[in-house]
Q: What sequence folds into this?
């Protein structure tokens, strides 16, 4: 199923499937394992459990709305990525999808590295004890203070994003008496969509230095001359929520041809390439994401082949999956507050959260699934729109989905696949209190990011 993909936020294209959700699923009580995290199941009383704990108990203990993160699944996905890429490659979890100190500890224990893109993410990473040499620092406008902090901490790499930044990082490193390992982020001219990629269009955006027109080659020329920098490789990130590997293959090919140009011009073979993140996950049953081992094989094969053709030693590959690791591992639990049928249209189901805990539907036309989780029901399917409690008609969590017609206030419903870019992009709109993230594992649940309180709101508002 096609859907829109976007490089870093703003929506680039609407490729909404036709006739989506015109037919209800055969049994509304069945949980599609594609969209739910690994330890989610329904018990014999019909109540959904995660890590063996009933959602009804979780709601009583932690309240709603809340994100429940399946730690077992998160760790398994980390291991699957690390195993798929093996010891000759590096997996950097993209912290922008969701970062907390507990997550950093899990990454550390599972042997993953971490990509941060702000001073705040760097602070969380360092505080939670991620070894600095396992951190990559990204961003198109890192401040001097952020760069200084990263260089002082000894981050493994800084990904350079502009001509100004090349000089900025070089000076800071030199002043601190060190040489900073860096990669240069290049824009390869691939706009990745789910089932297509459009060459050239993608240069019109803020990230990276374009291969076309020689900007990237010029950046390499400048970086290579500066004592404060050790240029270790080239970085490319083509987009997000991508299912088709073709865009990555074109990107890899173009990055390798830049490596060959660098070898010809400077007589050096850069030892690393990073192909970014962006691998898609299943938000609905129509999505068919690739497995990490398929992705690893496709990327490794293409890089190896292209390097052989260019007479280059195969560089060390790294990737930066965010969504593909954390996305499927969490669901948001809501309590139904009102049920409002609109004759001939659909039924509006209002929950106790909304666009403040999941902005993705409003921002990207993202599609989600939803299920009644506090009980089963044999009632007829009812075409529903799950909406929040914000003062805005665009406050939609799930645009079109079927829920049982006997749905009533007090029922618990859950939206799966909300681990990525939901808590991370949560806001205080309407002075909503951002929900907690609760990690669940082997029958135990613990808060890893607590719910915001009115005291938090009042503390920021200094009067
Ligand atoms: N590496 C770089 C350099 C990135 O810019 C990104 C995402 C990633 C890795 C991780 O991409 P992932 O594997 O998670 O797709 N807020 C949007 C997504 C923005 C992605 C920004 N960059 C959303 O909710 O869909």
A:
């Amino acid at each position: 199923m096609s859907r829109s993909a976007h490089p870093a936020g703003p929506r680039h294209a609407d490729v909404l499937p036709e006739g989506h959700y015109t037919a209800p699923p055969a049994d509304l009580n069945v949980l599609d394992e594609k969209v739910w995290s690994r330890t989610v199941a329904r018990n014999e009383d019909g109540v959904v459990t995660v890590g063996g704990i009933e959602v009804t108990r979780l709601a009583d203990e932690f309240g709603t709305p809340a994100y429940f993160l399946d730690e077992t699944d998160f760790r398994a996905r980390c291991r699957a990525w690390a195993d798929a890429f093996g010891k000759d490659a590096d997996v950097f979890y993209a912290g922008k999808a969701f970062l907390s100190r507990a997550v950093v500890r899990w990454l550390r224990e599972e042997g993953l590295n971490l990509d941060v893109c702000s001073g705040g993410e760097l602070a969380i990473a360092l505080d939670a004890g991620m070894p600095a040499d396992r951190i990559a620092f990204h961003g198109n406008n890192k401040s001097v203070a952020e760069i200084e902090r990263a260089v002082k901490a000894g981050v493994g790499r800084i990904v350079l994003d502009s001509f100004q930044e090349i000089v900025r990082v070089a000076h800071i490193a030199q002043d601190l008496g060190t040489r900073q390992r860096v990669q240069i982020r290049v824009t390869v001219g691939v706009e990745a969509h789910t089932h297509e990629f459009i060459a050239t269009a993608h240069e019109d955006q803020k990230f990276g230095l374009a291969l076309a027109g020689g900007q990237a080659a010029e950046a390499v020329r400048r970086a290579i001359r500066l004592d404060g920098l050790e240029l270790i490789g080239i970085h490319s990130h083509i987009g997000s929520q991508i299912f088709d590997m073709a865009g990555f293959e074109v990107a890899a090919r173009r990055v390798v041809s830049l490596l060959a140009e660098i070898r010809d011009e400077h007589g050096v073979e850069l030892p690393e390439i990073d192909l970014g993140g962006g691998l898609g996950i299943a938000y609905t049953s129509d999505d068919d994401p690739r497995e990490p081992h398929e992705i690893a094989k496709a990327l490794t094969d293409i890089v190896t082949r292209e390097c052989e053709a260019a007479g280059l030693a195969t560089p060390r590959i790294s990737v930066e999956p965010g969504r593909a690791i954390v996305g499927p591992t969490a669901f948001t639990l809501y309590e139904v507050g009102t049920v409002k049928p609109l004759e001939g249209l659909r039924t509006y189901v209002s929950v106790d959260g909304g666009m403040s805990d999941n902005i993705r539907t409003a921002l990207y036309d993202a599609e989600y699934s939803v299920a009644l989780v506090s009980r089963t029901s044999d009632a007829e399917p009812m075409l529903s729109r799950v909406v929040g409690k914000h003062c805005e008609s665009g406050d939609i969590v799930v645009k079109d989905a079927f829920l049982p017609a006997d749905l009533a206030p007090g029922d618990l419903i859950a939206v799966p696949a909300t681990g990525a870019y939901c808590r991370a992009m949560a806001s205080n709109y309407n002075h909503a209190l951002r929900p907690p993230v609760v990690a669940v594992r082997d029958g135990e649940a613990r808060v890893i990011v607590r719910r915001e309180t009115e005291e938090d709101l009042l503390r920021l508002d200094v009067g």
Notes: The first strand starts at residue 41 and ends at 42. Residues 8-9, 94, 96-97, 115, 138, 237, 240-241, 276-279, 320-324, 360, 364, 420-421 surround LLP (CB under 6 Å).
